[in-house]
Write a structure and sequence with these properties.
7-stranded parallel β-sheet, about 325 residues, alpha/beta, 11 helices, two-stranded parallel ribbon, single chain, about 40% helix
Length: about 325
């Protein structure tokens, strides 16, 4: 039986990861500040569901509060940590940049320090496909350059990877970063495409298709993401014996450090995603075509070969299946 700390446990991915850990008999300490970035009721309902599970303990707090994080680690002594708490959203970072510094930088620093001093065996943390920024080479691979982020959110996630490597190098802390690619599914975030489009379509309102709908996204169903996260958790990062400072490989290191892409490896045009959503809802969408938004990228596509080779990760949920499951949940939760 493992004791795992999941930060952001009341969030979308954190909720599903926590359930999966509890299903296999782990003890899970959930930590979340329950902020109001999106509907707090959705977070409260996720949390209420988790609190019904044996082996789950919840602590409310903010990662930017170093004292609270220190007390969390002292009181609960997690053996491993999955850090999913973060200020999310590319567009929101244009309006509220300071929120990203506090949550994604100061908060992550608190986690690293606590892991260092409390002998944590493995830190797995959320990065993002946004780090690829201005890169246009497809599919995105961890060997690619990520020095040109297009939003502060992306920059904060790249900073997390750099900070993690420093702690892996200096203190031998095994860290693994996962670059998530457009996750969707039941209990999803209201600011993401599946949620926004479903709500608008059912209300008879237009949906906004940026870049005139010619966006490619590597939509990844949440169950596939969770399976990858758990497999990575069980395989702490190891130093790469082949790593060389003369020809540095970005995804590995001479320290116990790894970075992986975790996505569906099958990019879908946004217009196709809308079509599948229309079929699942049985309602046509009213489309509003708009130019590209600042900070956004036209395409994402994950090269997941390294993750498949190392932990056997294999995404298996086509959008037709995943979207139908999301719509079933949405109608059950909201009605309509």
């Amino acid at each position: 039986m493992a004791r795992v700390l999941v930060t952001g446990a009341a969030g979308f991915i954190g909720y599903h990861v926590t359930h999966k850990l509890l299903d296999r008999g782990d003890q899970v300490i959930g930590f979340d500040n329950l902020n109001s970035y999106y509907d707090p009721k959705l977070k409260a309902d996720r949390l209420a569901d988790l609190k019904c599970r044996e082996g789950f303990t919840f602590v409310e707090g903010d990662l930017a509060d170093q004292r609270a994080v220190d007390e969390l680690f002292i009181d609960h002594a997690p053996g491993s940590v999955i850090n999913l708490a973060a200020q999310a959203g590319v567009r929101y970072s244009l309006e509220n940049p300071h929120a990203y510094v506090q949550s994604n930088l100061v908060g992550f620093m608190s986690v690293l320090e606590a892991c260092r001093h409390r002998g944590v065996e493995h830190l797995v943390y959320a990065s993002s496909s946004s780090v690829y920024g201005a890169n246009r080479t497809m599919p995105f691979a961890v060997s690619h350059n990520v020095d040109h982020p297009l939003s502060l959110y992306a920059a904060s996630k790249k900073a997390n990877e750099l900070m993690a490597h420093t702690y892996s190098h200096l203190y031998g802390l095994p860290t693994t970063g996962l670059r998530f690619f457009t996750v969707y599914g039941p209990w999803g975030r209201p600011d993401m495409a599946a949620f926004l489009f479903t709500r608008a379509i059912l209300a008879g309102e237009p949906i906004d298709l940026f870049n005139n709908g010619q966006m490619l996204r590597d939509f990844t169903y949440v169950d596939d993401i969770v399976e990858g996260v758990i497999r990575v958790l069980d395989r702490p990062a190891q130093p790469s014996l082949a790593w060389s400072g003369e020809h540095p490989e970005p995804g590995t290191s001479a320290a116990p450090y790894r970075v992986y892409n975790i996505g569906n490896n099958q990019p879908v045009e946004l217009t196709r995603f809308v079509q599948v959503l229309e079929e699942a809802l049985g309602v046509p969408a009213v489309r509003r075509y708009l130019p590209m938004q600042p900070g956004d990228v036209p395409a994402t596509w994950a090269d997941v070969d390294a993750l498949m080779a190392d932990v056997g990760f294999s995404p298996s949920t086509p959008i037709e299946v995943g979207v139908r499951r999301f719509v079933e949940w949405y109608r059950g939760y909201y009605g309509g």
